[in-house]
Amino acid sequence: MENTPEHRSGYVAIIGKPNAGKSTLMNRMLGNKVSITTHKPQTTRHQILGIHSEEDLQIIFLDTPGVIDPSYELQKAMMKTVDRARRDADIILLIVDVTDYNVPGRIFKMFSSMKNKEIFLIINKIDKTSDQQCQAVAKEIQGKFDFDDTLFVSALNGEGLQQLMDTIKENITSGPPFYPKDMLSEQPVRFFVAEMIREQLFLLYHQEIPYSSTIDIVQYDERDDLDYISADIIVNRESQKGILIGKGGKAIKKLGKSAREVIQAFVDKKVYLDLHVKVREKWRENPSHVRHYGY
Ligand code: GDP
Ligand code: MG
After folding, report:
1. Do 284 and 210 fall within a single domain?
2. Which GO cellular component term is one of those annotated (predicted)?
3. Residue of 150, 157, 128, 122 whose CA lies nearest to 28
4. Which atom of ligand 1 is nearest to the CA of 17?
5. pLDDT for position 3
6. pTM for the complete prediction?
7. C-beta 156 within 6 A of ligand 1
């Protein structure tokens, strides 16, 4: 990797409340789906890295879990992830859903202790309301913190994203490429496979099930004809096992089918997906379990 004096690079952390559109925004900026997104809050649990490279420039986006007041160990680990991202970042994008714009005080508290970082206010989901409402929301939030810039976007339909990209580029300073230029993210395939199963689980199950589950890839065999994947779905309580499996295994079959389709499209190969449900009593509350499952 060349490191010329003209090369510029930097880290951009994407933070905000759950469901603000952080992961959608990052995927759209990269032109690739790197981070899973659903209509449910707290879909993202890890720091997901997305890399945008040009000949003389590299921007590393850090997608993060939504900022909440953590109430169990898994959520505490998620908030540590947010904290790491904002410390690593040169630029911070605070993503605010214009229709749900109450910014938690802990975000401003976080900002007030930071130096030498550009902090931009990004008003998202502008497709959902009037210009007037967008301006009013921006004004109210600007009253609470002195942002370096404010931009209006729709991560869903792409409006304003080119301008956001240009603004980020203007603020990226000289630095080496940190990753190979053809790399889009740093996690291995099995990480994305686990995330894709989790995404389908978020889409197909309700209430506490998505929040009580995690995916453990037990085996990943790349065979000539197909990839064999064995994955455990870890749940928090015995009673959740039955719900996950469903009557006569109907629910888990549906999950397996939709997850397999998404994974096949991702690895561009046939996939055999073997899913098993395991109970780990209160894994979410247990620091060593939370760490063991990769959080
Ligand atoms: P995150 O929790 O902040 O990562 O939010 P996601 O990216 O998972 O998005 C949450 C939901 O908001 C999803 O259903 C998205 O499709 C939706 N969403 C994200 N951006 C926009 C937007 O600009 N406009 C509209 N209408 N919906 C959006
Ligand atoms: Mg997300």
Report:
1. yes
2. plasma membrane
3. 157
4. 3
5. 59
6. 0.92
7. yes
